[in-house]
Amino acid sequence: MMDMLLLGLAAFFAGFVDSIVGGGGLVQVPALFSFFPGTPPATLLGTNKFAGVWGTTVAARNYLRQVKVRWAMLVPAAAMAFLFSFCGAYLVTHIPPTHLRKALPFVLVAVAIYTFKKKDFGSADRPLFSGNKEIWLAMLVGAGIGFYDGFFGPGTGSFFMFLFVRFFGYDFLRASAVAKVLNVACNAAALSWFGFSGHVLWILGGLMAVCGIGGSLLGTHLAIKHGTGFVRKMFLFVVICLICKTSYDGFLR
To answer: Residue 40's CB: how many other CB atoms inside 10 A?
Structure first.
């Protein structure tokens, strides 16, 4: 009973963090591996996807009620994210992401330094592109990060946010709304593969999903209420946590 309570708390906090800047897997995945050490990793990853996709969907819905997005850009990008995330999930069953695991901390350090040095980064919403150019660039981002999510995964939402702020000129709040929709597509693709191959603990995932939705509702409320400054601080916090976690996984574990 205590294990389920702690897993529920982990899912709640994961949903809270993920709804703002991504990175919920930092909390939820280690919790699952800690409480179920004898369960196959693929099954725990599939359960994590099932538990997380509901909170991400709720967060996306709440953002879209308050933040305007260009659906002509977002729908093709989400389609590419879904397709390439599925391809990445399939490929990882044949090729382990060993080298990517070691390179990721250095990429995250560069993201953190860039965001920290540019104090006005993501503070204003000044889209740099429109029309077909924005659509094609968004599809490229969806494909690239979607494949990464299926193949490896840590920090997917944070990468989506950074790219839409840096290259599209969005503020952090709008970038977070876009990232949530793309994250839903990625999670749905990976979940379809894990579910098809029998790697989901459906009842456990459902219980964690309820807690995650609660965290998502609180996180999106705070993000919308406090705006881009709050989201930027949370983004830096999560990226720093990701640097620590991925450095440990890549070089010490």
So the answer is: 10
DSSP code string of 93-144: TTS--HHHHHHHHHHHHHHHHHHHH-TTTTSS------HHHHHHHHHHHHHH
DSSP label at 22?
A: S
Average pLDDT, whole number, for the chain? 89
Give the C-alpha separation, 74 to 79, whole Å: 9
Please name the residue ranges forming H helices in the chain.
2-21, 25-35, 41-66, 71-91, 98-117, 131-151, 156-166, 172-196, 202-247
Rounded CA-CA distance 198/118 in Å is 45
Report which of residues 10 and 125 the model is more confident about: 10
For the residues 204-222, what does the mean pLDDT come to?
Answer: 95
Task: For residues 4 and 35, give the distance between their C-alpha atoms in angstroms, rounded to a whole number.
Answer: 9
